Amino acid sequence: MSVRSIAKVVTPNPPRPGSPVKIRNSIGSSNQFNPFLLFDHFTIPSTGGFPAHPHRGQETITLVLKGGVAHEDFTGSKGVLYPGDLQFMTAGKGVVHSEMPVPNEDGSPSVGLQLWVDLPNNMKDVKPRYRDLREWEIPQVVADDGKVIVKVISGKSHGVESQKELAYTPINYYHYKVKAGGKFKQELSPGFNYFLYVLNGKNLKLNGNTTVDKYQTAFFNETGDYITGENTATEETEANESEFVLIGGKILNQKPVQYGPFVASSKTGITKALLDYELARNGFEHRVKWNSLISRGVNKSMVTGPLNGCPKKRAADKKSYLDSKI
């Protein structure tokens, strides 16, 4: 077995001044990383958000880190994601949806990560679908005498596998927290591209020779069976903890053409997507009659009512799930 080397470490541009939504972007249309089309670290105040907008030809994966994010689409799907929850959305042949922050009682913004993943060309016209993954459904690994904690969102880590396939394009997704002095070794899937994004900390050393700081992204080369890492801090404090996500995706033998939220296999496909959306056809038929509940903002009555995001119900669902595992 061989270590997978780092191709480059990138520091994304800081969020644009004056914008209510703060975004750090590591992957985008000018720097795609097969099969990934976009990777954003977002911070959204209650006055911001992403009102009704379309997608076609890709999947999106959203992880909420702080606060809450409400979502709905023109197929009738709706709900609320809270810290630790994920949503896997397949846009397929077409979807229009809204993603808006849930106001937090202390006025703080909602924070999360969003990933766009290319769909294989022969699956770009599948029906849209959603899969919500609650934080209590995610297997967790504790290693190195408690110094390393891994949430196995999708894939396998330290002998523990995720519970279900969540995307058409095979994805590995690991959320790590490493205390001072903690060390880890993560095996990787062949034929996958991987990148690592640091959420917190400045003491993470990868493969024994490369330090990656907060908000930086390490992109790995295509070959190699594993990576290693350690938190080089000597004092165990909350400030010294390293937190990051390691994400991999199966490399697709295709070159996507992207125009904003539309992804196709050719420029002709993009033109078709724009026309289909404008004319409300071929997957976008519901666009004309659909009125988004949340595009102008989310309030408490929406959360406890039609969005089905009542905290008491969430607590009951969590208890029921955990009791079923005893």
From TrEMBL:
<dbReference type="InterPro" id="IPR012093">
    <property type="entry name" value="Pirin"/>
</dbReference>
<feature type="region of interest" description="Disordered">
    <location>
        <begin position="1"/>
        <end position="25"/>
    </location>
</feature>
<dbReference type="InterPro" id="IPR014710">
    <property type="entry name" value="RmlC-like_jellyroll"/>
</dbReference>
<comment type="similarity">
    <text>Belongs to the pirin family.</text>
</comment>
<feature type="domain" description="Pirin C-terminal">
    <location>
        <begin position="173"/>
        <end position="282"/>
    </location>
</feature>
<feature type="binding site">
    <location>
        <position position="53"/>
    </location>
    <ligand>
        <name>Fe cation</name>
    </ligand>
</feature>
<protein>
    <recommendedName>
        <fullName>Pirin</fullName>
    </recommendedName>
</protein>
<feature type="domain" description="Pirin N-terminal">
    <location>
        <begin position="28"/>
        <end position="117"/>
    </location>
</feature>
<dbReference type="InterPro" id="IPR008778">
    <property type="entry name" value="Pirin_C_dom"/>
</dbReference>
<dbReference type="Pfam" id="PF05726">
    <property type="entry name" value="Pirin_C"/>
</dbReference>
<feature type="binding site">
    <location>
        <position position="55"/>
    </location>
    <ligand>
        <name>Fe cation</name>
    </ligand>
</feature>
<feature type="binding site">
    <location>
        <position position="99"/>
    </location>
    <ligand>
        <name>Fe cation</name>
    </ligand>
</feature>
<feature type="binding site">
    <location>
        <position position="97"/>
    </location>
    <ligand>
        <name>Fe cation</name>
    </ligand>
</feature>
<keyword id="KW-0479">Metal-binding</keyword>
<keyword id="KW-0408">Iron</keyword>
<dbReference type="Pfam" id="PF02678">
    <property type="entry name" value="Pirin"/>
</dbReference>
<dbReference type="InterPro" id="IPR011051">
    <property type="entry name" value="RmlC_Cupin_sf"/>
</dbReference>
<dbReference type="GO" id="GO:0046872">
    <property type="term" value="F:metal ion binding"/>
</dbReference>
<dbReference type="InterPro" id="IPR003829">
    <property type="entry name" value="Pirin_N_dom"/>
</dbReference>
